[in-house]
Specification:
Elements lengths: L1 E2 L5 E2 L1 H12 L5 H8 L3 H13 L19 E9 L4 H13 L3 E6 L6 E7 L2 H12 L5 E8 L14
Antiparallel strand pairs: 1-2, 3-5, 3-6, 4-5
Amino acid sequence: MVKNLQNLILDDLDKSLLRALQKDGRLSNVQLARKINLSPPATHSRLKRLEKEGYIRNYSVIVDPEKAGYDLLCFIQIGLQTPQSIQVEGFRDAMRKMPEVLDCYHITGEYDYILKVVLKNRKDLEHFIMNKISSIPGVARIHTNLVLAEVKATMALPLE
């Protein structure tokens, strides 16, 4: 059994339900109930409880970036001059407002943040770095890696 910080426990049926939804978030309640061998009302109750307790954050659609015209995926590492709270909050607020930034993580090591960024082309990358990232107060270092090929990408947790 898995425990989270609030001491809530996931039993085997909860994990089965979550695994099924991670594979296909469009399953109807009846389909989901069949997959986990539980009645539809009981499945619905479990699902609502998992949503209420925060195990399920959101439901969404994953759009193919290339088909949507985004040919460039980058990981950009950012180093701040001095990570003072006002600079950190300013940087974080700026990241939240940039639609190109898919993910932003505060990290350990040589840099302070790593961003997962999607852009249409090299010109967009140049504009993004020169006009958006470089203009944020406190940004001292920028290191960019371009993704050549996606080997594995998933949001599914290994619930066992």
